[in-house]
Amino acid sequence: MFLALKLLVIAVVILPLGGCQKGTEVTTRPSAMPQNKVQLTRAQIAMLEVAAEGDTAAVKSWLDKGVDVNMRGNDNNTPIMEAAFAGKTETVKLLLDHGADLSAKKNDGETVMTLGSGHPEIVALFKNVSALVAAAGQGDNKSLNELIEKGTPLNGLDANGQSGLTEAAWNGHTATVKLLLEKGSDPTNKKSDGQTPLSLAQSRKHPEIVTLLEQAIAKRSQASPAESGK
Questions:
Q1: Distance (Å, rounded) from C-alpha 38 to C-alpha 42?
Q2: Residue (of 180, 190, 181) closest to 218 by Cα position
Q3: What's phi and psi for 111, nearest 5 deg?
């Protein structure tokens, strides 16, 4: 009787320990693990991990392999949220260069802006991205050039889910569109609602901008994978 009772107690103690060990296999941050119904691929889990670690080379490698810059984790967290929270400025810059979206929200309502609020360099970077989008929307090429010279990423989406190029295309600022394309803006980069600079220019009937964008897209499609890997 007593032996059976002792064996039962030992089994109760051992089982939880085994389950706890199994739950810590994959990631350094709980938010990068698929805890809900979201089914993440190994590549997506790895992307969230390396973004949180600030491994910029690994992040670029996953982007080049086709992992979406704005992919969502189990918490609706994105790679740039992970990098911003951890204070990884260079990784944040790279993700913005590839069209990371500052308007995205986690399940708890946190945004990239709030998650990065404890890191002054990242806060300043986000402000510059917002300023660049605003300047492009106004056709203010002087301010735009100043922000570009500071190293502000061209392709980031601001808190409204817009990029400099989508704003310039929508508002019909041909010279601004040309400037952004010359500086390296991605003509295929989408707003958070899925619209592209080309679709916006077409809907607003800006033929010169449509032509500029079509030419840029054609040139990009003819580039080597290394050149069009963003």
A1: 13
A2: 181
A3: -115, 175
